[in-house]
Design a protein that fits this description.
Elements: H1 26-35, H2 38-55, H3 57-60, H4 90-125, H5 127-142, H6 145-156, H7 160-169, H8 172-186, H9 190-197, H10 202-238, H11 249-259, H12 267-294
Protein name: ABC transporter permease
Membrane topology: Multi-pass membrane protein
InterPro entries: BP-dependent_transpt_permease, MetI-like, MetI-like_sf, OppC_N
């Protein structure tokens, strides 16, 4: 006869099953890490504020046009940012310039991102095309960007669509290089090979696996490319190649330089310059904070 000894009698205790909490998604971990970064949160708040100012410009200030009675008046209660050589309110110029500068920056950035992601993904996925596309990207990056942008903008004529296209054409190579580098790490992954084995088409594999793999890099590229596009727009407008029928931060600086008040009336250049600096610093810090948040080593 066989005697079955229970675990308690044998001096052992049954093993308890511990229910582990479900692992958090990568997106949630990234957001929690980003939320703990005060510089990232402040930068995001500044960019949201600038976006609200751009959308609500008609509610904040009247469109600066015509002439005013107070010429080159310093900042005060009536004119917070002073007036220019024609008596126009600089505060209204900065507010309305926010709309054009952000629109040009976002539109040029999105167009550059579309071209750069397309070229970068094709170069990483189709290895035979990598050599040709790599040569095109390298040649584009070696060109003197600013003189060519000035030349193309001068030949095409000053307008907002011209600025968007010119800035995007000279901004996509940097995006393509970053996306290609990330794509080269994603394409050899086992799940991408498994997608080919089950009969997935190239378009389906790119859409379902490659693009999500390079998405974090694209998000950072959107932010950084937008800040560079705003700087490029301000530079071209300062040189007189912006749209003369609309206000932007670069146009304000151009008007101050053309009127000779660039050195005598400091307020005509200080406030639009601070607006440009604020946007560029906020976008840069936001990109750095997001990069740190999505990196497990720095999270």
């Amino acid at each position: 006869m066989t005697t079955v000894i229970p675990p308690e009698a044998a001096g052992t205790t049954p093993t308890a099953t511990i229910a582990l909490p479900p692992s958090e998604s990568v997106g949630r971990q990234t957001w929690q890490a980003f939320r703990r970064n005060p510089l990232g949160m402040v930068s995001a708040a500044i960019l949201v504020l600038l976006g609200v100012v751009a959308l609500a410009a008609p509610l904040i200030a009247d469109y600066p046009s015509g002439y005013g009675e107070e010429v080159l008046a310093g900042p005060g209660a009536g004119h917070w940012f002073g007036t220019d050589d024609l008596g126009r309110d600089v505060f209204a110029q900065v507010i309305w310039g926010t709309r054009v500068s952000i629109v040009v920056g976002l539109a040029a950035s999105l167009l550059a991102i579309v071209i750069g992601v397309l070229v970068g993904v094709l170069a990483a996925y189709f290895r035979p095309a990598d050599l040709l596309l790599g040569i095109i990207v390298d040649v584009s990056l070696s060109l003197p960007v600013l003189p060519l942008m000035i030349l193309v903008a001068a030949l095409a004529g000053p307008s907002v669509p011209t600025l968007v296209v010119v800035i995007a054409v000279f901004s996509w190579p940097e995006v393509a290089r970053v996306v290609r580098s990330q794509g080269l790490a994603v394409v050899p992954m086992p799940y991408v090979s498994a997608a080919h084995v089950i009969g997935g088409s190239h378009l389906w594999v790119i859409r379902k696996h490659v693009l999500p793999g390079v998405a974090p890099v694209v998000a950072v590229s959107v932010v950084l490319t937008t800040s560079r596009a705003v700087l490029s727009e301000a530079g071209l407008s300062f040189l007189g190649l912006g749209d003369p029928n609309s206000w932007s931060w670069g146009t304000i600086l151009h008007q101050a330089q053309r009127s000779g008040s660039l050195a005598t009336a400091w307020w005509t250049t200080l406030f639009p310059s601070l607006a440009i600096l604020l946007l560029v610093v906020a976008t840069t810090l936001l990109a750095v904070a997001y990069n740190d948040a999505r990196n497990p080593r720095t999270r």
